[in-house]
């Protein structure tokens, strides 16, 4: 009966978000209350939670989840906004296109999406980079869809797989994984996923020659106003360099050494993101003569951009805590272990099912983590791979209930049918290849 209550709770979440269009944070709170009260109806008196315990569980879950993540998420948003507003993303795109030339222009756009996608949140990255795709399409006389899919595949993968994006960062905490190692393994899994869903898949899309919607074409910044290529890359990739570098150094350092202590401190995600934001504010703003007040205004705008995501993550934390406090997580763990399914496949499958039902990759990933996280305890599967498998599943088959689907359709001026054949297939490839990559890595880790 407890498992039926959990199933009904998840179904209620899907209905509230996908059908009734209720605010996702409010939907999570309603589902938590429903779960607590429904479990009380099917349990013995000594197993029930009081009303006070249910509300306290919700508060505890939100606090525990956001306590460790809100700083990283806010700093990540600030850095992404600085990269976008300063023209650093445009400089990276221009520089890579010069290096690769017209013949390999897709690869330059793919790399641009990957570099810019690490600090930029997906929706911001989409809106920022699509006009650049249209500009390149006009210059090269190549179809916009053919050029756009590789870049958007990169943005999607960084959004679903890699810290410091909100969902992967939250999954790292839930699965008790190391953020640096997750980033390194994530890069290994991400590269084939992006290549297959980007340049390889887009070879079949040259027939989609629709002109992009004129409404979404914007003027690009003049080159003389852009930061240098080196400055742009250092500002955008500093979190990756610090997280990956300190993780690799720790593999060589002795646990009792001074080097271990320093690398542990520098590799702390909060310190990494603080240094990245300060570096970005200086390199992309203050050093270029931008007033401090203007730089701070850009960073304040970034907080507004990410506030909804923070609430969604907090709501998912409440659901996870409710599963723990009600002892249902143990029942779920026992049931799932009895299925004798690979935990990576199980996590991917549940995330994919919720993604297809709800439409939100963030909701799919975080909800799945609350269900399957107990499986990691005592399992031989590396927790970083659980993060990546769950993230890959959360990207599965974007369709009409996903905002990204409609953004792609309207920006690229496609029919619903053609959007399914381009965007939805790309997202599916990214998801499936991500799972395959995790399973292969699991053989060696």
UniProtKB/TrEMBL annotation:
GO terms, molecular function: gluconate transmembrane transporter activity
Residues of the signal peptide: none
InterPro entries registered for this protein in UniProt: Glcn_transporter
Organism listed in the record: Chitinophaga agri
Similarity section: Belongs to the GntP permease family.
Name of the protein in its database record: Gluconate transporter
Membrane topology: Multi-pass membrane protein
Short name of any one Pfam family annotated for the protein: GntP_permease
């Amino acid at each position: 009966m407890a498992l039926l209550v959990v199933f009904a709770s998840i179904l209620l979440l899907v209905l509230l978000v996908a059908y009734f269009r209720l605010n996702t944070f409010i939907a999570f709170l309603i589902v938590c209350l429903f779960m607590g009260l429904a479990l009380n109806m099917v349990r013995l008196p000594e197993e029930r939670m009081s009303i006070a315990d249910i509300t306290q569980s919700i508060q505890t879950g939100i606090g525990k989840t956001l306590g460790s993540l809100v700083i990283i998420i806010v700093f990540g948003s600030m850095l992404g906004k600085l990269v976008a507003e300063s023209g650093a993303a445009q400089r990276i795109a221009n520089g890579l296109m010069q290096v690769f030339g017209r013949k390999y222009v897709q690869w330059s756009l793919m790399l641009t999406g990957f570099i810019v996608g690490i600090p930029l949140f997906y929706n911001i990255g989409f809106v920022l980079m699509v006009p650049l795709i249209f500009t390149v399409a006009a210059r090269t006389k190549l179809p916009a869809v053919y050029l756009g899919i590789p870049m958007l595949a990169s943005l999607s993968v960084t959004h679903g797989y890699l810290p410091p994006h909100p969902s992967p960062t939250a999954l790292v905490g839930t699965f008790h994984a190391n953020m640096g190692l997750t980033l390194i393994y994530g890069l290994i899994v991400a590269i084939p996923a992006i290549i297959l869903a980007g340049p390889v898949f887009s070879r079949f899309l040259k027939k989609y020659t629709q002109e992009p919607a004129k409404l979404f074409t914007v003027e690009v910044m003049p080159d003389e106003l852009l930061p240098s290529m080196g400055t742009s890359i250092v500002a955008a990739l500093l979190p990756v360099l610090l997280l990956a570098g300190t993780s690799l150094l720790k593999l060589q350092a002795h646990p009792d050494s001074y080097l271990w202590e320093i690398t542990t401190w520098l590799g702390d995600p909060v310190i990494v993101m603080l240094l990245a934001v300060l570096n970005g504010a200086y390199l992309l703003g203050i050093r270029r003569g931008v007033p401090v007040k203007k730089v701070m205004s850009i960073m304040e705008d970034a907080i507004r951009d990410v506030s909804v995501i923070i609430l969604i993550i907090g709501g998912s934390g409440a659901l996870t805590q409710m599963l723990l406090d009600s002892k249902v997580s143990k029942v779920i763990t026992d049931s799932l272990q009895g299925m004798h399914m690979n935990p990576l496949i199980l996590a991917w499958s549940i995330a994919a099912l919720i993604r297809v039902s709800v439409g939100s990759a963030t909701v799919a990933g975080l909800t799945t983590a609350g269900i399957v996280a107990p499986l990691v305890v005592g399992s031989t599967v590396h927790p970083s791979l659980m993060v990546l498998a769950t993230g890959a599943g959360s990207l599965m088959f974007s369709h009409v209930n996903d905002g990204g689907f409609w953004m792609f359709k309207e920006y690229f001026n496609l029919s619903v049918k053609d959007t399914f054949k381009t965007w939805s297939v790309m997202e599916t490839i990214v998801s499936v290849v991500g799972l395959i990559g995790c399973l292969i890595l699991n053989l060696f880790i």
